[in-house]
Amino acid sequence: MYQIIDGKSTAAEIRAEIATEVEKMKERGSRVPHLAAILVGNDGGSETYVSHKVKDCEEVGFRSTLIRLPASVTSEELFERVKEMNSNPEIDGLIVQLPLPEHISEHRVIEAIAPEKDVDGFHPVNVGRMAAGLPTLVSATPAGIMELLKRYKIPLRGAECVVVGRSNIVGRPVSILLSQKGADATVTVVHSRTGNIEKIIKRADIIVAAIGSPGFITAEMVKEGAVVIDVGTTRMPAPETKSGWRLKGDVDFENVAPKCSWITPVPGGVGPMTRVSLLLNTLKACNR
Ligand code: GUN
């Protein structure tokens, strides 16, 4: 019988730990952590993500500032706002929600954020420090996955991990973290150009699925007893729900779960851990 890796309750535990820490900061007379988010345009997904981030800040006692800019904003105007936030000593963490409109270069915006305030961990300085095994702000989803594996005591040393997907946000960084000293897993990264992908995934003790292709991982690809971490969050039309959509992971949960030792659900697995990791990074940026 498989067991659920419950990201929702784990994240709630961590939020409670953070809230306690914030109370102590207040008692000491310290300033509380402050996260600033820049939202450009009206992308539906981005609106939801940013509103969650603001709500999470409130719950743990952080300050938050949301800056909304129109989709027509120029790169220069956006850079100006980023610079302002970089030099504002009252702001600890700054995120610019992605995706950005076509006319703005995402990587130039990311590079404009001060690395010590880059709580998304997307700046090349932070990515480089992470890859070198130096203390840094690690991006939220990879950090959340590592925290889940740790809290659930999933053995990593020598385990065969297959990471499905090579994105800058999840696949690439999580593959680096899993193979690092201390984690000590043996890691294979597979992607859209990999031949024989099913056979490679079938070897895995631990599968991290981060491709954004709903239901891609089927039961035939999964070894008996594997641990499955599902990072997918594709919005599927669902007329029966209030919002009109529901999230579907990269794993065919119904058929895969019975083969697993542990598996994360969608929703309620990696997603809540991503959100709480952003709070942890903001706390860390504040304590620097
Ligand atoms: N868009 C999708 N995920 C993320 C994220 O983690 N951070 C930012 N800034 N934008 C995103």
Look up the CATH topology of the largest domain.
Answer: Rossmann fold
What does the overall shape look like? globular
Q: Helix fraction?
A: 25-40%
Structural class estimated from helices and strands: alpha/beta
The ordered H/E elements are EHEHEHEHHHEHEHEEEEHEH
CATH superfamily of the largest domain: NAD(P)-binding Rossmann-like Domain
Q: Mind describing the biggest β-sheet?
A: 6 strands, parallel
Structural write-up:
By secondary structure, this protein is of the alpha/beta class. It has two domains: 29-114, Rossmann fold; 140-270, Rossmann fold, CATH 3.40.50.720. It has ten helices and eleven strands. It has helices at 7-27, 44-60, 75-87, 106-112, 124-131, 140-151, 171-179, 197-202, 253-256, 270-287, and strands at residues 3-4, 34-40, 63-69, 93-96, 160-164, 186-190, 206-209, 226-230, 234-237, 245-248, 260-263. The strands form three sheets. Strands 1-11-8-7-5-6 form a six-stranded parallel beta sheet. The chain has a three-stranded parallel beta sheet with strand order 3-2-4, sandwiched between helices. The chain has a two-stranded antiparallel ribbon with strand order 9-10. Strand 2, helix 2 (44-60) and strand 3 form a beta-alpha-beta unit. Helix 2 packs across helix 10 (270-287). It is globular, with a radius of gyration of 19 Å. It starts with a strand and ends with a helix. The structure holds guanine (GUN). Residues 95-98, 120, 140 line the site of guanine.
